[in-house]
């Protein structure tokens, strides 16, 4: 019996529960996309996510993070990995049939340059699939909603600004903005869908913020509370807690009219 990408992602990232949740729903959204080889994993990180989606595909990965590339090379998650900036890719024109980029474009200030580079290295009729926080992302963060509930809108606004700054988010954009960027360099939008509904997004944001909480002990390094607790919870139990709290409501995995994440798939037209 094959294991779904949702379950694989949840298991792969269990040591960071917030990331496990986000990657699981992201994998669910992407599982219907066909990636023809050769594939470029743009801003690949350690390469685990792309390999979850494409077990046997030929995948080239690149990232500016040298440590992540070092892990990808050591664990052989991808076929070839390179330290490279998405805005200046070291590949010849029309090198790839498909490009994947999961939750990376929002971190690039001049993202138009990165999209233009994807168009350059992609073959005509090639597919570019990427995920990013949707324009609804901020509405699904727990702590800003909590402050709004308490009648503290300024505190809620500052919390949103702090969180996005912490995450390095430059782009929390609606679909038309992404479509315009794509059209300007020869792409046609062929598919979009929202993922991460309200309940998982709220849980994700609580887990993500509390992962930063630490206790300072004299003459010792800070102790991160969540990481310490997760260390003592058996992986099987943690998986069951996360899995069943999400999947018991099947609608959470159904097509959404709104969500904290946005999947976009575009096709490059002929040069």
List keywords for this structure.
20% strand; 11 helices; two-stranded antiparallel sheet; 271 residues; Rossmann fold; globular; seven-stranded mixed β-sheet
Q: CATH superfamily membership of the largest domain, which one?
A: Vaccinia Virus protein VP39
The CATH class of the largest domain, by name, is Alpha Beta
The global form is globular
Strand order of the largest sheet: 3-2-1-4-5-9-6
What share of the residues lie within helices?
40-55%
* Biggest sheet architecture: 7 strands, mixed
**Total DSSP E strands:** 9
Judged by helices, strands and strand pairing, the structural class is alpha/beta
Sheet-strand content, in percent, reads 15-25%
Separation, N- and C-terminal Cα atoms:
43 Å
CATH topology group of the largest domain: Rossmann fold
């Amino acid at each position: 019996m094959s294991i779904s990408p949702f379950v694989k992602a949840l298991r792969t990232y269990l040591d960071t529960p917030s990331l496990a949740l986000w990657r699981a729903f992201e994998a669910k959204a992407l599982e219907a996309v066909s990636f023809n080889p050769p594939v470029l994993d743009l801003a690949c990180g350690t390469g685990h996510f792309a390999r979850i989606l494409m077990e046997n595909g030929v995948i080239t990965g690149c990232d500016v993070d040298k440590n992540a590339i070092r892990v990808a090379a050591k664990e052989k998650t991808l076929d070839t990995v390179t330290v490279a900036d998405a805005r200046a890719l070291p590949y010849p024109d029309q090198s790839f049939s498909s490009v994947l980029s999961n939750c990376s474009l929002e971190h690039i200030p001049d993202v138009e340059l990165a999209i233009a580079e994807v168009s350059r290295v992609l073959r005509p009729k090639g597919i570019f699939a990427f995920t990013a926080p949707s324009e609804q992302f901020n509405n699904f963060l727990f702590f800003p909603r909590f402050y709004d509930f308490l009648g503290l809108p300024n505190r809620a606004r500052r919390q949103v600004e702090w969180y996005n700054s912490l995450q390095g988010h430059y782009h929390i954009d609606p679909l038309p903005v992404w479509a315009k960027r794509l059209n300007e360099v020869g792409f046609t939008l062929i598919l979009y869908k929202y993922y991460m509904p309200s309940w998982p997004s709220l849980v994700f944001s609580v887990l993500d913020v509390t992962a930063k909480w630490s206790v300072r002990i004299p003459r010792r390094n800070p102790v991160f509370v969540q990481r310490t607790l997760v260390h003592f919870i058996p992986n099987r139990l943690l998986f069951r807690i996360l899995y069943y709290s999400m999947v018991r409501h099947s609608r959470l995995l159904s097509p959404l009219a709104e969500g904290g994440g946005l999947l976009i798939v575009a096709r490059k037209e002929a040069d």
